[in-house]
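On clarity, I found the account of how folds are encoded harder to follow than it need be. What matters is that the chain and its backbone geometry are given together, residue for residue. For the editor and my fellow referees, an illustration may be useful. For illustration, here is how one protein appears when written out as sequence plus structure tokens:

___
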Amino acid sequence: MLDTAPTLAILWAVIGYLLGSIPFGILITRMMNLGDLRQIGSGNIGATNVLRTGNKGAAAATLLLDGVKGAVAVLLAQAMSGDGGAMQIAGLAAFIGHCYPVWLKFQGGKGVATFLGVILALSWPVGLLCCATWLFAALVSRISSVGALTAAMASTVWMFFMARTDLIIVGTILTLLIYWRHRANLARLKAGTEPKIGAKK
């Protein structure tokens, strides 16, 4: 990532950010007349909050598209530059774009689906392991944030075991950002007040 030329790095940071900042959760709920997502549940723009509208299809579409935009950023960089560093920069920027979109006054989502999409595009074996970790932890705990935090923590471990040590720096940055975005969830988990998947609040 550090070997990428500055001009190339800036280009893919901008492209990645703009792709990541597309607020699919808000767009989908508006198109389906499900109300203002920012006024529902936690106010978050991600799939977990979309699920609180009661529309599972909308939540699934949000999850998929939020993941796809992260993957597209990485794959575009791969197709157009062939530079591994550019791919990582584009993916990281897409994640940041989702969390801090300029269109929503930098008040975005927590980035879990985009994180998984980015990891899948950077290394599909590592990405599949992260997805499996997320799914297992979420199903066992019935708490969305537990799945996200567990998958994020495990991501660098999977990178090491799958011999993708070239991704550990970006993986560590993404993990730290995931934990930062989930700091309120961490406080609720500690207090035992974190809602279960599908809860209205």
In short: The chain has one domain: 6-191. The radius of gyration is 16 Å. Residues 56-81 form the longest helix (26 residues).
